[in-house]
Amino acid sequence: MTTQDLIPLQVIDAHRHGVWALGLLLDGHIISGGGDGLLKVWELATQTGKLALVSQIPTPHTEVLLVRRTQRGRLVSAGHHGGITIWDMDLRRDHLSLRQHLGIETDYWEFNDRILETRPGHLITWAYLTATPPVVWEWSTAQGVFQFKQELPLKWASALLEDAQGHLLSGDRDGKINIWQMNIASGSWTATKMLQAHNCAIRALCWTREDNLISAGGDDALIKVWQQDPDNEFFVLQQVLQGHMSPITDIMETEAGEIISNDQGTRFLIVRWRHKPEFWVWRKQPQGFQPVQHETGLVRKYLDHSLIVDDIGESLSLWKKEGEVYERRVTMINGHRDLVVAVELLPGGRLITGGLDGRLILWDLEPFLLKS
Fold it and tell me: Can you give the pLDDT at residue 312?
């Protein structure tokens, strides 16, 4: 199968010091956050089909590392300094207004780059692998703001996720997975179980919905798959997945019976360092997950039976599933000059990517996504 080259529809020098975050607003606008501490709102112009800057807003953050829309339609930003910031969007004037700043006195640096929103409506904020404990915020309907609920007694947290039963699972630097349960009466979270999953830092957690499995990836380049019983009383080690040669950085469930893992890609090879990350595709078989493919690059986003892969300083590419494996169909050339860190798919098959080079790039993937 031949690979086609695709050039950008549009290239914008959007932010100084990198584009770190992208998000979609309810009205279809796009929002970007950058290393310059700015949020910028963009619209896809109907006549030209290209991005146009609508407004830019300074934030309390020296760098905006995260921007996300909550279940209640609020916009949340986080980054270096400035704590967690809640924004209101005035759709008539295409403008963001500061609604609330979330911060606690013990968080001196006010650094956050991770957010989990639970089904009960709690926001949990933390910074990846730092000593600052994750903080739980609760929405007050009466006052229309988030209020401090508690600090989780957990340091060096790397990953937090919510399972089907509404429990929280956390991974940390010491290789432990803690299971947290919420008290219905008080709304507070308490650690009820602890699993020593790795003998090194856990960097990624993934819960697979169909089989109730927890996959944990660590600095030891291993993925350990644990079976969780329905009552959350115990975990049984099902498998140890081997193949990666450097620390696992991400594990994602793409579809039922399939997970994809990324690694850091830094390892010593003879007399030099190799910096090419790899991704592995694992498929569930009767005997457990089996490797069906591994390639150079980082999977940045899963689309319907397709992958957006960062080829690490060379290009982006679109891979489509052909039978049991993914095949490269499109190479996106003349694009970013550094790592891609943010990817969003728009209606109509337009893709927006943001990178450490400060660029926002618009691509038209519709013809390729429609092809079987």
Answer: 80
